[in-house]
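Tokens for chain A. Residues wanted.
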């Protein structure tokens, strides 16, 4: 399970948890097609591996939440039993603030908004997708525009739920904009899982920018921020957007 070839970037280290800077294009946990190249494989080969093995499968080897493969940014991993149980409770009780930055095309017609659109998971051509469904799981995304160019915009999104592909679906279906670099979800078109779409190169510009949560042991407020990767910043420049910090 351990794979030292998988790079692990630790952005912050607490006795009870880690904040990782996950690279876009990397899956978090081993699964179909990614048995030995997931981020967890790299963690198991790192100095934190023994701690995570002690947590075991019952506590997901410390993995608290997940990011889509193509999403970059802040990811929480527990190091201890109190750390895992406390952070899991915070997520279950929705006491975690999850903020994302995203580049979209075109710019939205409004400066801000909220999407409340239930989602259901389906599988097409071997790919797990999320689709709107009134009978699906509740999903909520608040968004606001923080930078704009001639044809594109940067949005800050806060989600109070964590459904599969939530921001991607909510922006296309609820706002009418498409995330730059998204190979699957299209504006006014069904999800595209064709081999051609899946082969398209280039990163998806969706970044988990900030996490706020109570410390799992002391309950003190914690906040961690990871700036977008160079590819995201370069795309901002190419779209005529000046790098600005979301407020």
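Reply:
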């Amino acid at each position: 399970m351990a794979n030292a070839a998988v790079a692990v970037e630790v952005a912050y280290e607490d006795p009870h948890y880690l904040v990782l800077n996950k690279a876009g294009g990397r899956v978090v946990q081993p699964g179909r097609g990614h048995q030995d190249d997931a981020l967890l494989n790299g963690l198991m080969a790192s100095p934190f591996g023994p701690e995570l093995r002690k947590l075991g499968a019952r506590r997901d080897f410390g993995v608290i939440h997940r990011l889509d493969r193509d999403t970059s940014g802040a990811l929480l991993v527990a190091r201890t039993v109190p750390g895992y149980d406390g952070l899991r409770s915070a997520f279950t009780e929705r006491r975690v603030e999850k903020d994302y930055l995203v580049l979209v095309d075109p710019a939205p017609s409004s400066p801000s908004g909220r999407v409340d659109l239930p989602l259901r998971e389906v599988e097409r051509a071997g790919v797990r997708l999320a689709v709107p469904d009134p009978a699906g799981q509740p999903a909520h995304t608040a968004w606001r525009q923080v930078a704009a160019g001639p044809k594109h915009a940067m949005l800050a999104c806060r989600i109070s739920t964590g459904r599969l592909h939530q921001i991607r679906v909510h922006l296309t279906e609820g706002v009418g904009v498409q995330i730059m670099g998204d190979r699957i979800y299209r504006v006014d078109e069904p999800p595209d899982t064709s081999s051609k779409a899946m082969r398209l190169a280039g990163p998806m510009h969706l970044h988990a920018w900030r996490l706020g949560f109570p410390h799992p042991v002391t309950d003190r407020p914690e906040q961690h921020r990871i700036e977008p990767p160079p590819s995201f910043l370069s795309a901002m420049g190419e779209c005529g957007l000046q790098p600005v910090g979301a407020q």
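The domain at 10-238 is CATH 3.30.2350.10 (Pseudouridine synthase). The radius of gyration is 18 Å.
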